[in-house]
């Protein structure tokens, strides 16, 4: 990694942490295999566990709810694409804005849980979120998001395979999501959503940031297909976080609509010039229970002392508390192995092949042709619903 600028190596790294950062860079550069098992220096850690990340799908709940208002299949695919593009800023750049640079999320423990909701405002309906860490090696997060009033459900899982190439960390996202919309005629329309690849740059200076790369797809059961191409600096517009999305009709490769812009700011319809997405306005954080009311398996309670240490800049405490959790988990796995026991998932059931992925994936020849899935058991009552059902 040659330094071609006037910036100094590790200039974004606290002085007390420069030694550990240099060692971390050397570890990455010489490591073969999945980087997720490497221990990052505490200053580069996020105070948020990966288990919270599915909340980024719905931090603009009005766009999620608006999908239900579509009258035609074409309009529904446009609304789904608009909602999806509007989730990318929260998923991939929000930590840069809050914390100064991209941070490595806390690696969840098996069985870790995260619950939340976005309340009903102006008749949009309440949106509920259930997340469970269903695997630790490799780390796999399963999630279910539903707006029952509008008849919209999102179910999916994600995992990451990371490698090092050309001075960047390359992240291949494993998994997919399926969005299901209940139609007025009693039928359903399904959308298969694949995930973009990530590239983490800026490591040399200790100020990592994420770029999306390659192509992802949204395939509707109606036949409409969104093809989303991501490019970094210097391609379509010479700016970072650039995308181009082409929406094509069933049995056609021609573009019915083309949208272009910056997924972390604004984009437009290139034919009409009409604004398509605008994520410069504030997003809506997920509502969760107070930490003291959470169970020991819920993410914010589990990691509370680690998160406090990171936020306070007390990296010694953060590292010590993180080590306690990790050692406890290792011991739990050893005890299970000795007893011949298998960890039972709480909210999801694993299936080897997702029939929706296979059926819709054939329409655009996705790779791989089959993929596993985690199916929600519908066994959690959202907090607000539970309170509503209590006797007066």
UniProtKB/TrEMBL annotation:
InterPro entries: OSBP_sf (IPR037239), Oxysterol-bd (IPR000648), Oxysterol-bd_CS (IPR018494)
One Pfam family linked to the record: Oxysterol_BP
Chain segments carrying region Disordered: 317-338
GO-annotated cellular components: cytosol; membrane
MF terms (GO), sorted A to Z: oxysterol binding
Residues making up the signal peptide according to the UniProt record: none
Family: Belongs to the OSBP family.
Protein name: Oxysterol-binding protein
Organism: Obba rivulosa
Taxonomy of the source species: Eukaryota, Fungi, Dikarya, Basidiomycota, Agaricomycotina
